[in-house]
């Protein structure tokens, strides 16, 4: 099984952000990290990978989103491909996957809020009913 990882650091005003992409077997995962207003140094990136790698929030993708690595590819060809990727827009699979996960989280939050609101309303209704019944009970 081939595990392939890629880190793209880019400036999204006003912060520098890092986009981790990982291909492992038939899964594709993405994590996004915000570095700050200054460009991260090599030491900061190394420290991030060593200490916070396990704590990153990974968004999983589909199996067909994978790009297979060719073992027989020459180093010059890899360099050209890397240069092309840098030139291309970063709005690719990773960002669409992160947006999709964000929308799903918003839907879940909305469902939880509605559930809590309904629960609170039913509790208030029960309280009013018991109070009304207690008034008509008599002595």
UniProtKB/TrEMBL annotation:
InterPro entries: UCP021328. This is YjdF family protein. It holds the Pfam family DUF2992. It comes from Lacticaseibacillus rhamnosus (Lactobacillus rhamnosus). Residues 105-115, 127-139 have a biased composition (Basic residues). Residues 74-139 are annotated as: Disordered. It comes from the Bacteria. Residues 116-126 have a biased composition (Basic and acidic residues).
